[in-house]
């Protein structure tokens, strides 16, 4: 923990994409929690909420602007276009001001009261990263529970360092944020990046609720995309699996060739055009899968070496800030 006199300044980073239905309630609950933390002397008066608008198409940004005019503890940051949830979280962390940062989604599924436990863990134990970990998945469907837990186990099996049942609800100190800023990946998977920092960590368990209002911004397609991002951004084992599969198939093919030669020499005949077609189809499918996987990694390398900016900030509103147009 940083050496300072008095309680730390807390910045609560809330990524938003088309959240007009839930934003007023999220703002109200977060402000109440923040006020209680200030009243108890756990954080100082400069503590605030930073809503990050990730190129919303509804009235999300208008709500943020209006809130920043009436609530001194509310600030807003608008990205120039939609860049995705992970980039919006990172933008809030890197562009925000504070001694400690807590990232939380606007949908009110994460238990806001866990913020207090995170702050206390940082103050009392000097933890630089406090992970919010789900105590259970009773609110999920059987399919979601099976696939989510299976995905965490898959990442661990592939050698990815990840906190089980943790999403993006976490506290990070200023020095942890600085360390995170050293990672320059375009393809972001913060759940895998943050554990790489290596500073002192802790976990806080909480119960996750149903979404307060609106629709999920992570449908199955985006969830699968994020899952694939995590695998291909942090592990080269899929490429090794292809190599091993290639060796095994080559050995089987070699044995098959020997068997065919032996059958030819001994005058045996094999009437198996169907099995031949099946074998060719399977090998062709495996080859296409391998080429596609290799292409995925090459595509990531292509995007990384161009080193394009991950985001641009369009506007900043709130206390002690002004729009970038001024």
What can you see in these coordinates?
The protein is of the alpha/beta class. It has helices spanning 23-39, 60-70, 85-95, 114-125, 142-157, 174-180, 190-197, 220-234, 237-265, 273-306; strands spanning 10-16, 48-53, 74-79, 100-103, 129-134, 166-173, 201-206, 313-317. It has an eight-stranded mixed sheet, sandwiched between helices. α9 (237-265) packs antiparallel against α10 (273-306).
What are the main properties of this structure?
326 residues, alpha/beta, 10 helices, elongated
Contiguous helical run count: 10
Class inferred from helices and paired strands: alpha/beta
Estimate the mean pLDDT confidence. 81
Report the uncertain regions. 321-326
The helix fraction, in percent, is: 40-55%
Q: Determine the strand fraction and express it as a percent band.
A: 5-15%
Q: What composes the largest sheet?
A: 8 strands, mixed
Order of strands in the sheet with the most strands? 7-5-6-4-1-2-3-8
Rg, alpha carbons: 25 Å
N-to-C terminal Cα separation, in Å? Answer: 36 Å
Number of strands: 8
What is the overall shape? elongated
* Helix/strand order: EHEHEHEHEHEHHEHHHE
Summarize, please.
With 326 residues, this protein is α/β, with parallel strands linked by helices. The chain has helices spanning 23-39, 60-70, 85-95, 114-125, 142-157, 174-180, 190-197, 220-234, 237-265, 273-306; strands at 10-16, 48-53, 74-79, 100-103, 129-134, 166-173, 201-206, 313-317.
